[in-house]
Write a structure and sequence with these properties.
By secondary structure, the chain is mainly alpha-helical. It has one domain: MetI-like fold, CATH 1.10.3720.10. It is 80% helix and 1% strand. A two-stranded antiparallel sheet has the order 1-2. It is a multi-pass membrane protein. This is Phosphate ABC transporter permease subunit PstC.
């Protein structure tokens, strides 16, 4: 008995140490970004940096507002495309697909998550960009091209987590609904989806994080022009792309400004996650009240 308790204590303390180390590593990363980025914010001014409309390193002009708007627009469009497809696919897999179809769909969806982002970028560069150029005008390198590629990339994440959330709904709920005379579709959209809403929102948060943090594929198809796009067919530059493109040759204030861009990116991500968590909490509480 003593040996068992000792093993349990070791496992418990080991997991606690791992959790603490994870928090420390995250804090160290955030601290490093703050240390490297604050000189630029102090020199430029936080509001001048945040609301500045121009990014011209040659003239020491740094404003990230066009890139913030571009990032949010790209993320929003990609989620608008991906969420209905992902939730619909998850519902089909869990509620309608037979075993043979599940054996085909699940590995296919999982394999999409393992494809390197540069491959998605090549697909967008060779197929999507020329298609947009020929049918909608412009260069083809655009906000919508980046958003479509991102939507494809985040599909596996949202589908997998949404599928798990739907599977976690007790079978007795479905049986009771069907027993009361509800159709299968009524059971799905009036009972299963509301019950699985917290898990679905978690899936959307994970997809949102992937969309905001993606760099390589976006660089290849977005056009990378630091401007507020007037339409979805105009080029755009996002915060992550800005850092990746210019970090290789940045020095002095320019170098610090790129780290300051990272600070803004952290703030944007934290705000969006907080909003999504709040929505998920409200949905969970509302679902509990309905039940």
């Amino acid at each position: 008995m003593t040996n068992i308790k000792l093993k349990e204590l070791i496992v418990e303390k080991g997991l606690m140490i791992i959790a603490i180390l994870s928090v420390i590593i995250i804090l160290l990363i955030i601290g490093f970004i703050l240390i490297e980025g604050m000189p630029a914010i102090e020199h430029i001014g936080f509001f001048n940096f945040l609301f500045g409309m121009e990014w011209e390193p040659k003239h020491d002009i740094y404003g990230v507002l066009p890139m913030i708007i571009g990032t949010l627009e790209m993320m929003a469009i990609s989620l608008i495309i991906a969420i209905p497809l992902s939730v619909g696919c998850a519902i089909f897999i869990t509620e309608y697909a037979n075993n043979t179809m599940k054996k085909i769909l699940k590995p296919t969806i999982q394999s999409l998550a393992g494809i390197p982002s540069v491959i998605y970028g090549f697909f967008g560069l060779v197929v999507l960009v020329p298609f947009i150029r020929e049918h909608f005008g412009g260069t083809g390198f655009s906000l919508i091209a980046a958003a479509i590629i991102l939507a494809i990339m985040i599909l596996p994440t949202i589908i997998s987590v949404t599928e798990d959330a739907i599977m976690a709904v007790p079978g007795s709920f479905k049986e009771a609904s069907l027993g009361l005379g509800a159709t299968k579709w009524q059971t799905i959209y009036k009972l299963i989806i509301p019950s699985a809403a917290p898990g679905i929102i978690t899936a959307i948060i994970l997809g949102m994080g992937r969309a905001i943090g993606e760099t390589m594929a976006v660089i290849m198809v977005a056009g990378n022009v630091a401007q507020i796009p007037g339409s979805i067919f105009e080029p755009v530059r996002v915060l992550t792309s800005n850092i990746a493109i210019e970090m290789g040759y940045a020095i002095d204030l320019h170098y610090n400004a790129l780290f300051a861009t990272g600070i803004i990116l952290l703030i944007v991500i934290m705000i969006l996650i907080a909003i999504a968590d709040y929505i998920g909490y409200k949905s969970k509480m509302q679902g509990s009240g309905d039940l």
